[in-house]
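In the current project phase, the collection of sequences with tokenised folds has grown. One resulting record follows, to show the layout:
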Amino acid sequence: MFERSRRGETALLIQPHPPGQFDQEILDEFAELARSAGAQVVATLPARVERANPALLIGSGKADEVKSMCAATGADLVLINHTLSPVQERNLERLLERRVVDRTGLILDIFALRAQSHEGKLQVELAQLRHMATRLVRGWTHLERQRGGSIGLRGPGETQLETDRRLLAKRVDMLQRRLEKVAAQRQQMRRARVRNEIPRVALVGYTNAGKSTLFNALTGAEAYAANQLFATLDPTVRRLDGLRCGPITLADTVGFVRDLPHDLVAAFRSTLSEAREADLLLHVVDAADPQRDLRIEQVNQVLSEIDAADIPQLLVYNKIDLIEDGQPRIDLDESAQARRAFVSARSGAGLDQLLDALGRRFSEVQVNAWLQIPNSAGRLRARLYNLGAVRDERHDEQGWRLQLDLPQRQAMQLFSQEGALGQSCIDQLELRAAAVDDWG
């Protein structure tokens, strides 16, 4: 029996492909995934697969070639750019006498390496355990040993495999409960943003398209950004002020990739809900990527999986500084709404135009007026400040006099929740709504 090695930093990459359909770009991306996981890629090997071998995926002759190449290059890890069944993974490890990891396992490993938040770590561990649950029958000989032999433990007992399965199931159940609690806390925070009626915008896109760099450039945040796949896993939400529509929230989310493991999509549903519940998606595209149209399709496929396909999108072509004659611009659709934006998050080109387009998209009739509220209306005053709607304030014995500047729809929704006080505010503002010069 083959006892799995704990080593595995020197990797040989295998790219299975149908006859006549080898794509070097797909192999290059897989190599970048391997390097992102910390592997040193020493060799790559295409493997034509006309019909998948149930035992090995690749043919036995190709498997022997892989074993010889591993010996020649010193590779102690074999990465296969395909999903392997547990049987295929076990058989390949026995034959090659090296650790074998498929595409799903590699992506899960990268996510485990990059997750920073408590929620992100729980989600990654849950996905890994679900993946592992089907792979407990491996080359480990100890999994077939039975407990027993000592006083009080003699008899059939249970195998180590059964013990591992039981412990794994308990751990999965515990992680699910913890994630439900974290998801409930995230939902409470989201409800607070919804109550304030602040428009929600989420950045989505293929991994390494520059989402986090754009997020930092727009918000002044310091979210981690690097020229590597899956640099960002944990969602970051920041408030963006200074737009003509008033404040909005902007969320940076995990990057997508082709063939994203379904277990991972399922585990990250609560994180991806920032995209699923947004009012607008900024779909960030690497303008310098020759495969950008394919990338857009692949991102849209993942959005369909998380029920976000129907949310309006604004395509943001980033990295125009890397293409010849790249100039910032905004393309409009038939309703004069921004449909595409061409920017460079690194140089800042086009960001002002993008912010203006966002402001126009969410702008409406503005309420610009003075509002009189009593001293007892402290909660309403605080909510107006939280919305960034107060431009000036004066106080006397009658209460507060607030100079407001906020969208009319937002004002009406806020005041409709305040009973008689809110109706009094609506009556005042209806006399002066959109009166831009009525400031005194």
Notes: The longest helix spans residues 160-195. Confidence is low (pLDDT under 50) at residues 137-157, 432-440.
